[in-house]
């Protein structure tokens, strides 16, 4: 299924999530929430795109085939350009190469097929820039050197974030539901510490930054009371389990870097693919996530609202201006 939230700024752009949802209702809700997040993400990333998202129900390890992906590509084509797709959880560059065979509104393709390749590279880079901005706001210094950062989910984006943090001098603690993902990081970076699960991670003593980099809903009524970190900044979409969590975070003195702001590096990359991809140009744009994040913190302080609300206001302002134009 494909959800289109807004086309005020241009064609809806968002990835394809391939996941074994428990029900069709759960899949629909995720698609709707993710499409809204993409509208706001694209707006604050300065892109001329609205927000959309697609989900395919099922275990990609069991049911993903070229025939299914080609059929999905025809579905995208049927929308006539109102929706532009890309990779997300459960889909990869090779999958987008297949999808693109039946429509021209596919990004995230391999360089061999005219694409930009893996968007995880700039997603992780953008999250790191958002984390640097968070450190600047929280501690007065835009570095994670000497800070303990906990990453929940070290898949496509999370394992690249580990590298940025280690290079910056951070101490890194990780967890993931997939043992092979954890093993891959530990084999490459033996100085990293692994814990059993997310609950153990957020209870880690001395944790400065919590980085949710898996599925959504990481910040909930259950996790918030035991969270020890002073900053939350990660790659996962829809980290707030429900409205009101952002105020709870603020009331507890926890700085939250809005997910759709800091994880926009990937969408910056795939959007550029539509105009002739240039990695260096994209990296410069992704680096601006640092400034955007700081501007959101400043707006939040000035308006006396949580950063998530400040980010929403800025994104809604840009979309409203486009509609009036």
UniProtKB/TrEMBL annotation:
EC number: 1.4.1.23
Subcellular location: Cytoplasm
Catalytic reaction(s) noted: L-valine + NAD(+) + H2O = 3-methyl-2-oxobutanoate + NH4(+) + NADH + H(+)
Entry keyword Coiled coil: no
Domain (Glutamate/phenylalanine/leucine/valine/L-tryptophan dehydrogenase C-terminal) ranges: 117-325
Pfam family, one: ELFV_dehydrog
KW Nucleotide-binding (keyword) present: yes
Protein family: Belongs to the Glu/Leu/Phe/Val dehydrogenases family.
Subunit and interaction comment: Homodimer.
Name of protein: Valine dehydrogenase
High-level lineage: Bacteria, Bacillati, Actinomycetota, Actinomycetes, Kitasatosporales
């Amino acid at each position: 299924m494909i959800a289109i939230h807004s086309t005020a700024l241009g064609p809806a752009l968002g990835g394809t999530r391939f996941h074994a949802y428990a029900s069709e209702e759960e899949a629909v809700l995720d698609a709707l929430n993710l499409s809204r997040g993409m509208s706001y993400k694209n707006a604050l990333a300065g892109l001329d795109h609205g927000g959309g998202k697609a989900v395919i129900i099922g275990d990609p390890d069991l049911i993903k085939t070229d025939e299914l992906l080609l059929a999905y590509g025809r579905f995208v084509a049927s929308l006539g350009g109102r929706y532009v797709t890309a990779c997300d959880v459960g889909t990869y560059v090779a999958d987008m190469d297949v999808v693109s065979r039946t429509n021209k509104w596919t990004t995230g393709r391999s360089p061999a097929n005219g694409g930009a390749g893996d968007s995880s590279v700039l997603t992780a880079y953008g999250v790191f820039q958002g984390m640097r901005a968070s450190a600047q706001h929280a501690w007065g210094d835009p570095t994670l050197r000497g800070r303990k950062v906990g990453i929940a989910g070290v898949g496509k984006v999370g394992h690249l974030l580990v590298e940025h943090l280690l290079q910056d001098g951070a101490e890194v603690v990780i967890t993931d539901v997939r043992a092979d993902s954890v093993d891959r990081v530990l084999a490459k970076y033996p100085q990293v510490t692994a814990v059993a699960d997310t609950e153990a991670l957020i209870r880690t003593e001395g944790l400065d930054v919590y980085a949710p980099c898996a599925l959504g809903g990481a910040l909930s009524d259950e996790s918030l009371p035991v969270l020890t970190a002073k900053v939350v900044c990660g790659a996962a979409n829809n980290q707030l389990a429900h409205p009101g969590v952002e105020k709870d975070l603020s009331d507890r003195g926890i700085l939250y870097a809005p997910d759709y702001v800091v994880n926009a590096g990937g969408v910056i990359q795939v959007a550029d693919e539509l105009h002739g991809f240039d990695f260096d140009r994209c990296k410069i744009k992704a680096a601006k996530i640092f400034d955007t994040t700081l501007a959101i913190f400043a707006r939040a302080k000035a308006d006396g609202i949580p950063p998530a609300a400040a980010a929403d206001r800025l994104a809604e302002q840009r979309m409203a201006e486009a509609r009036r134009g």
